[in-house]
Amino acid sequence: MKTADLSLEKSSRRAFLQQTSVGASALVLGSFWSQAADAEQQIAKPSAGSAFTPSALIKIASDGTVTLISKQPEIGQGIKTALPMVIAEELEVNWKDVKIVQGDLNPAYGSQFAGGSLSTPLNYDEFLKLGALARTMLIEAAAQSWNVPAAECYAEKSKVYHKASKRQFTYGALVAKAATLPVPDIKSVKLKDPAQYKLIGSRIGGVDNAALMTGKPLFGIDVKVPGMLYAVYEKCPAFGGKVISANLDAIKALPGVRDAFIIEGTDNLNGLMPGVAIIAESTWASFSARKQLKVVWDEGQVVSQSWDDFSAKAQALSKQTGAIGLRKDGDVNAALAQAAKTVEAHYSYPFISHASIEPQNCTAWYKPDDGNLELWVPTQNPAAGQAIVTSVLKIPKEKISLHMTRSGGGFGRRLSADYVVEAAAIAMRVNAPVKLTWSREDDMRHDHYRAGGFHFLRGGVDAKGKLIAWHNHFVTFANRVMRDGKSVLQPGSGASLSGEEFPGRWVANCLLEQTPMECGIPMGPWRAPGSNVFAWVFHSFIDELAHAANRDPLEFRLEILGDKDMMQGTGERGQAYNVARMRKVLLEVAQKSGWGKRKFARGQGQGMAFHFSHRGYIAEVAEVTVSKDGQVKVDRVVVVTDIGSQIVNLSGAENQVQGSVIDGISALMFPELDIQRGRVVQGNFNDYGLLRMPDSPTKIDVHFLKSDYPVTGLGEPAFPPLAPAVCNAIFAATGKRVRQLPLSRNDLRWS
Amino acid sequence: MSRYTLNVNGQTKSVDLVPDTPLLWALRDTLDLVGTKYGCGVGQCGACMVQINGVPTRSCMTPVSSVGRQKVMTIEGLDPKAAHPLQQAWQELDVPQCGYCQAGQVMSAVALLKDNPNPSDADIDAAMGGNLCRCATYLRIRAGIHRAAEIARTQKGKK
User: Fold this and answer.
1) Nearest to B94 among A75, A206, A686 (CB)
2) Residues A291 and A432 both lie in one domain
3) How distant, in Å, are the alpha carbons of A223, B96, B100 from that of A357?
4) Does one domain contain both A473 and A433?
5) Strand A400-404 relative to strand A372-377: parallel, antiparallel, unpaired?
6) B99 at A interface, C-beta within 8 A
7) Residue A469 forms part of a structural domain
8) Inter-chain contact B99–A209, Cβ cutoff 8 Å?
9) Same domain, A394 and A248
10) Quick one: which H or E segment has residue B122?
11) pLDDT band at residue A2 using 50, 70 and 90 as cut-offs
């Protein structure tokens, strides 16, 4: 995610200028379903009939309909609703007049990816300007028609008014005129005063809700192209294994099967893995035939790997100095020797799957006549799909068109494009459009996992109970990859500690070190990578130290944060940390939750945590009840966020926070993947637990504090503080400390 | 391959399929009713929930040969204008995130409200435990069912 091109300002501006130069031509972008048969149509082209297209993302037709392109992938984060709201606000258009169309991958749109909670911050300012620019031109068109100064006119509810004469034009009536006007310099366009916002900050329902409620085709798995065939792709259960042979002739003879073949694949664990494709006339025919498939695999070295062995190895490695030093402030050993109290603890968590509810799928249509490839993909990162197809299958970028569908969940999984290159590789062997559908078992056993990890911690407080020493040796997982012609160990996404991770920078004697264990397990970004477990480890251990010092956990945390309002970044990955913002959300969450004011019966308690990630400052307090037989119920969670000056869609934002909290509880309580003989043992929801409604808390209080900082995204930052807040509450309730995930690994019975 | 005549959303549909084809794939691939979703294939997630003779049923576990002339209802048959109290409530409260599981959620909720027009939180939890929502919109699903019950009561009062 971090390597993606973030220079939206530049690319979008360039695209904007290109688009605006076409003046009166209409942007024709219908629903991608109707265009399925014709790849040519996905690119904007002039058509008959007048329309005003002041940018690649905005079209106003003469009947007053405003069509806005949603260029970002929609994975459930609500961006298809939120970002068009930003344009519509400045455009002064009635929301009911707005039609939103999902954009395909198109260089005219600038960057298009949903990762790092970046969709909103990378586009917000630009979208305000685009809306304002279109409004300015419509006002100018009206002013010229009335022969009055534009300053005497204003726009409201899809109309332009002349104040003095009370004359008005609908936007539709102004389209023909506006389309002939020169486009003003975007810097000259005046933005609205945020205090005047009507749409931004309000509650707007998801734009696809009605379609979802009536079962319309929206998702990748719903794609149907005339003449389409259906594919499954069997990969080696042990990661990276190669096909030696398969009973292809027997498979080809099965009912409904059109073809079966081996794909050699590559060595890239996150790319095109070797496997066997079966092409059939229906999804069920392909699934059924697969049950008869017999493959002889070369399973490779990975079969020697297991979770239990890694776990034992991590214990042994913890006794040694870390392979990589990340931070060394003061002298940890000396400080620990002098400390009034010390705590030593070992925290661990397993590999987990994204388990997005829509299994990976992709429809691909390769046309050998012209060498064009058309793709329909539920993706968070369409350019990655295009790029891997180009690099592995040698189809030039300009020959690949990619339609983005709605995604049935993302959580980072669909930033990877393995399933895209699989579908493309299959399509090159099939003379028809073909939809590849992964089974749930494929999805769970060939995920790019959230890495497991082991943290060996030592901490010390002085006689006044102040934190003076912090040592974390993180034993993590890495894949061996070739980089610049050299073989190197690359830690999994989110499986690498930063030397700046809190409380690094704040503790006088701090030693952070890391040792990677080489593995053949594919890893990838999982909602709030790194943060999703680091926050749990650090805020649990901070809590341990607070209790060892006999201090109130809030007071202890405030003391660590200290008096400085800003903590500057250090080192190459340096990132400034606004302590004042964190202090404020922390105090606010204490106040809103009645921290320390309530007496809890034994078996009940409150816990807190905070975390800074994805430009968001968030603190949470959880209240739990633990029954005597050790069952945990989260009763209430209070969340206070500072994610900048503006919430875009209040309904969507609240949904993201509530979802993050419950997803946080789910990831804490249930999921765990075992690795044996180089493969994942679990395969479906019967052996891989996820939270269901009865375990859902009844109350989540969400408070958005507004600050003077830039608007940012909310898909991730509310997730990390949840697990430590709950585990700290469990400690308050029972005196039992959770040091291993999932929760089901812990005996929380009390008497 | 065998020919089956199905009653789906009040319409008679003829399909030519192997007998063990799950109703899910008959609906999705053959009849182009894609609102019913594939999530696990083993009856764990509830994304494939439909109603057969008014009973919530997992279509991924239901062979097409076992359906006969029973009445199958999918999300497409609830109200194509999205005006059923549950469809209204889901839009009003903006329940979905990704939305993939929501058709299945609604089909389970239809049955709950038919049997119990005024369910408590505990009734809802008990009835909805078979439907996973990976985005974890459970609070809004719960609230949506209460709201739908309210809408339905108001409608009944007016009749």
Assistant:
1) A206
2) yes
3) 17, 13, 7
4) no
5) parallel
6) yes
7) yes
8) yes
9) yes
10) helix B121-128
11) very low
B-facing residues of A in 696-725 (CB < 8 A) are 696-698, 700
Q: Say whether B41 and A440 touch across the interface (CB within 8 A).
A: yes
Q: Residue A645 in contact with residue A615, Cβ under 8 Å?
A: no
Instruction: Tell me the chain A residues in contact with residue B22 when contact means C-beta distances shorter than 8 Å.
Output: 284
**B residues 100-129 lying closer than 8 A (beta carbon) to A:** 100-103, 106, 121, 124-126, 128-129
Chain A residue whose CA is closest to B142: A693
Please determine, for residue A41, whether its predicted confidence score (pLDDT) is greater than 50. Answer: no
Contact B145, B152 (CB under 8 A): no
> Confidence class of residue A435 from pLDDT cuts 50, 70 and 90?
very high
Domain that holds residue A630: 307-350+449-745
Q: How many residues does chain A have?
A: 751
Q: How many CB atoms lie within 10 A of CB A321?
A: 10
Q: 3-state class of A289 per DSSP?
A: helix
pLDDT score of A23 more than 80 = no
8 Å CB contact of B136 and A692: no
Do residues A467 and A604 share a domain?
A: yes
* CA distance linking residue A369 with residue A648, whole number of Å: 47
d(CA A687, CA A682): 6
CATH code where residue A232 lies: 3.30.365.10
Start-to-end C-alpha separation, chain A = 48
Nearest to A593 by CA among A727, A703, A706: A703
- pLDDT band at residue A19 under the 50/70/90 scheme: very low
pLDDT tens across the length of chain B (159 residues)? 999 999 999 999 999 999 999 999 999 999 999 999 999 999 999 999 999 999 999 999 999 999 999 999 999 999 999 999 999 999 999 999 999 999 999 999 999 999 999 999 999 999 999 999 999 999 999 999 999 999 999 998 876
Tens of pLDDT along A113-164?
Answer: 999 999 999 999 999 999 999 999 999 999 999 999 999 999 999 999 999 9
Torsion of CA A42, A46, A50, A52, to 10 degrees: 70
Contact A317, A256 (CB under 8 A): no
Of A214, A408, A694, the CB nearest to B129: A694
Pairwise CB contact (< 8 Å): B35 & A215: yes
pLDDT tens per residue, range B62-76? 999 999 999 999 999
Report the C-alpha gap between A162 and A335 in whole angstroms: 74
Give one DSSP letter per residue of A306-337, joined into a string: -HHHHHHHHHHHHTSPPSEEEEEES-HHHHHH
Q: Residues 286..325 of A with a Cβ closer than 8 Å to B: which?
A: 287-288
pLDDT of residue A235: 98
Kindly determine whether residue A255 and residue B80, on different chains, have CB atoms separated by under 8 Å: no
Tell me how many domains chain A contains: 3
A22 — pLDDT class (breaks 50, 70, 90): very low
Predicted confidence (pLDDT) per residue in A387-400, tens digit: 999 999 999 999 99
Nearest to A685 among B45, B124, B126 (CB): B45
CB neighbours of B32 closer than 8 A, spacing ≥ 6? A224
Domains defined along chain B, listed by start:
2-77 (3.10.20.30), 85-158 (1.10.150.120)
Answer whether B36 sits within 8 Å of A215, measured CB to CB.
Answer: yes
Measured CA to CA, the distance from residue A208 to residue A407 in angstroms comes to 12
Q: Do B96 and A76 touch (CB under 8 A)?
A: yes
pLDDT in tens, A298-326: 999 999 999 999 999 999 999 999 999 99
Distance, C-alpha B21 to centroid of its chain: 19
Tell me if A212 is assigned to some domain.
Answer: no
Other CB atoms within 10 A of residue A594 CB: 12
Q: What is the pTM of this model?
A: 0.94
Q: Is this complex scored with an ipTM above 0.90?
A: yes
